Protein: Succinate--CoA ligase [GDP-forming] subunit beta, mitochondrial
Amino acid sequence: MVSPRRWLNLQEYQSKKLMQDSGVTVQRFFVADTASEALEAAKRLKVKEIVLKAQILAGGRGKGVFDSGLKGGVHLTKEPAAVGELAGKMLGFNLTTKQTPKEGVKVKTVMVAEALDISRETYFAILMDRSCNGPVMVGSPQGGVDIEEVAATTPELIFKEVIDIFEGVRDDQALRMAANLGFKGPLEKQAADQIKRLYELFLKVDATQVEVNPLGETPEGQVVCFDAKINFDDNAEFRQKAVFAMDDTTESDPLETEAAKYDLKYIGLDGNIACFVNGAGLAMATCDIIDLHGGKPANFLDLGGGVKENQVYVAFKLLTADPKVEAILVNIFGGIVNCAIIANGITKACRELELKVPLVVRLEGTNVQEAKRILSESGLPITSASDLDDAAKKAVAAIAKK
Structure:
C-alpha cells in the first residue's frame, strides 16, 4: 500500500530552473538572498526592464503587503539601483497575501528576472489522464486566465492530444498543438519545439503534471514559458532525490512536516479532540461523529496501511504537541493494520510520554482480541469503546468532566 504524503512544494525559481535545464525557454533570472546580491544580479542581467519577485509559495504576491510597509511582492523597474532598495524592503520581512496566514510569510529569497513584454498568451499542459492510460497534452489559445472558466464557457477552444507513452510526442502532434494554440509562421515550429522539450521534462522528473500558463509570445518573436506549475509523482522519490531535496517546507505546518517524515498524514483543525485513525474515509467519519455529539476535532492523524509500533509512538507525540488537545480518540479498523501493533504502540506512548489527557480507544479487525487484552492488562487509564458512536460520546464526555 502506498503511504500518504504531503505535496512537494517548489518555489517559482526552482520550477524555472528545472525547465531551463531541459532547454525550455524561460526569462533570464538570478536568485538573491540579500539586497546587495539582488542589486548585483540586476546589473548582471543588463536588460531594459527588470522584474523583482518575492519567493513564497502562496499566491496573490502582486497585491500583497510587507510589514516593512512595501506594497506588492512583484515589482517592475528599469533601474538596477531600485532593485537593491526594493529587495531590502522584502528580504527578512513578512509578506501577507490572501493565501497566507494573517501574520504573513517571511521572505528569504527574491528572484531578479528579465521583464519581457507578452504580445499573446496561451495555455499548455501535460498531465496524466487515467481515462487515456497515460499522458495527454491540453492546450488553449486563451491563456493567462483560469482554464476551468475557458473550458466551461468556450469548450471549443480546448484542444487535446493523447501521447503514446512508448512513442512520445510526435512532430505532427507538436505542430498541430502549436497551430491550435494560434502560433503562426516560424513561431509555430518554435512552439512545437518547446512542447517537445516540456514533454522531455515531464518524463525526466517523473511529473504527473506540467502546466504552463501563460505560454506566451513576445513582440520580438520568441516563445517563452512565463509561469509554470509542476506536480511530481511521490512514488518516484527514490529516483528523484535531487528534486525532492528542493522541497520547501518553511511555509507548512511544522507538525504536518514532521508527520510526513514517518509516512503519517497530519491535518490540523481548530477543536480540542485529537483523532488518531487509519484511512481518510474513517478520519472524516470520526470527525463528523465527534461533531454530531457536540465535540470539535483538534486534528486528525492518518496512519495509513503498513504500520510499525514506532509510528504509533510518533503519532501520539505529534498529537500531544498540540496545546489545544484535551482528549485523544483512537479509531482503528484493522484490515491491513494489525490491531496488536497499535495496542503495543499506544501503551508504550502512554508510559513514555506520561499522557495527561483522557484517551478513548476503539479497535476493530485483525488481531483485535489480542489488542484488547494488551490494553486491559496495561494498567493504564485507557477507556475502551465498543464502536465509533460509543467512542465519540466517551471522548466528548471526558472533556466535559474536566
